[in-house]
Amino acid sequence: MDGLLTAFWFTLQPAALGLMLLGVSAGVFVGAIPGLSGTMLIALCLPLTFFMTPEMAIVLLISIYIGAISGGLITATLLKMPGTEAAIMTTLDGYPMARAGRPGRALGLGIGSSFVGGLISWVALVLLTKPLSIWATKFTAFNYFALIVMALVLIAIITEGSFLKGIIAALLGALLAVPGIDPSSGTPRLTFDLVALNGGIDPIPMFIGLFALGTAFTDLLKPKKEGEGLSTSYRGVIMGVKDYLRHGANLLRSSVLGTWIGLLPGVGAIIGSMVAYSTTKALSKTPEKFGTGCEAGIVSSESANNATIGGAMIPLIALGLPGSLNNVLLLAALLIHSIQPGPLLFVNNPELVYILMAAFFCANIIMYFVMVGSVRWVSRISQIPGYILFPIIVFFCLVGGYAYGNSVADVWMLLSFAVIGFLLDLGGFPKGPLAISFILTPMAEQKLRSGLQIAGGDWSGLYTEPLTLIMLLMALAMLLIPNLGPKLSRRRKRALDKIGSPTPKE
């Protein structure tokens, strides 16, 4: 507890508060623009974190993450254009309510619910992370290897797109992680005699290319859907005590659902909001009102999608397993500073964990006030034409890629992955499994090698250790149930078809 109090003192210093305000504001701004995303902004900011302390880097990136997830609800409500996937379900009731002459009320419910969802998931983050990390320290190398394999399979099958494309993307990410120096022999592998590949593929130029520049190329070619803007005022934007009491059970249930769904690697905020929305509708006495401007629908969607942020942070800190694209980039920021999330993070860098928790809490409060204060103008900003945004994005991508290592080779790497990202989008291949697999594959290899060295080359530990065997069998079972991923994808597609909006990127 002392560590958390010290962390709050750190985050309340002017420099940290300024970074949180900047990060949340930038996240809300980007999250509200269909075609841009928090992932893109975090990728662009990664080179900047190289010049920061690990603590300040985490403060900035977690603030962007929270702001971006929340910002999508403004344009989802006023323009029927969800800025992020997380806001898709909000559109179903937010936009009809706004059209009925209550835009302030719709926004107020969404902003207040986002705030509560974030705080409830923060409680889970504080209470569950350390016990989970202590439990994880008892893992053997084979246990950890099996856990990573299970996470990779789950990420590949529960994602946007088809089951097969998710698997292919994950395998491609694993292949991209192979070039470099073999950890056992010390000799180059799959470098094709390119000196630049001896250190492996650098994740920073790769992620900027995939998620920022590649996404910008894709969005530039997409036909734009004009939103039907609605003017709004501050009236009804702030939820009252009676509102919180009336929707209390829904807020708590949806936030808990979002938190637990966030714990699952690769599931994401959209699935969290869909499950919470469906559950609330199923339990409602008037389910026919959902989709027509129902308050409960907005509350369940927004509280759940923000709660997935805290849920996803728990396995990232305790196990070193990123559960979403944004978490991959947070992990990359830590790796830049030679900090490895996982079971020993509480032992080696406890102050960093507590600062992340404190920043998460404070950024949610800042998010609330930024959102309340920005509803009048952010929907107009979201209509900035692509021909203005695209050159700005390209410029910052190229500058960020070069500034990271002061190397032209990094710029060429960035451009190469921008092309790869564009082709993946064109072919409908999800980039999430690729990125997460790229990060987790070296960890899996290292744990497998360690296990084999400890066992003297004996592979039997993979099926004689009960926990290892259970996790590997679960991974196999998930591969043999190919309907799981497509079912979730179909639900997501139906939600998109219902609102008549092109698929946004997050």
Task: Summarize the structure in short.
By secondary structure, the chain is an all-alpha fold. It is about 70% helix and about 0% strand.
Structure commentary:
The chain is mainly alpha-helical and 506 residues long. The protein has one domain (2-232, 240-499). The chain has 23 helices and two strands. The chain has helices at 2-11, 14-31, 38-49, 54-78, 88-99, 103-136, 141-157, 163-176, 203-221, 241-246, 248-262, 268-283, 295-319, 325-336, 345-348, 350-374, 378-381, 386-405, 408-427, 431-454, 461-464, 466-479, 484-499; strands at 180-181, 188-189. Strands 1-2 form a two-stranded antiparallel sheet. Keywords: Membrane, Transmembrane, Transmembrane helix. It comes from Salinicola lusitanus. The chain crosses the membrane at residues 58-79, 106-129, 141-158, 164-182, 194-217, 257-277, 316-340, 352-372, 384-405, 467-485.
Strand order of the largest sheet: 1-2
Q: Counting H and I runs of at least 4 residues, what is the number of helices?
A: 23
Shape: globular
Main sheet attributes: strand count, strand direction, barrel closure: 2 strands, antiparallel
Order of helices and strands: HHHHHHHHEEHHHHHHHHHHHHHHH
Uncertain runs with pLDDT below 50, 5 residues or more?
Answer: 226-230, 501-506
Distance between the termini: 34 Å
Radius of gyration: 22 Å
Output mean pLDDT. Answer: 79
Instruction: Compute the number of strand runs.
Output: 2
Helix proportion: over 70%
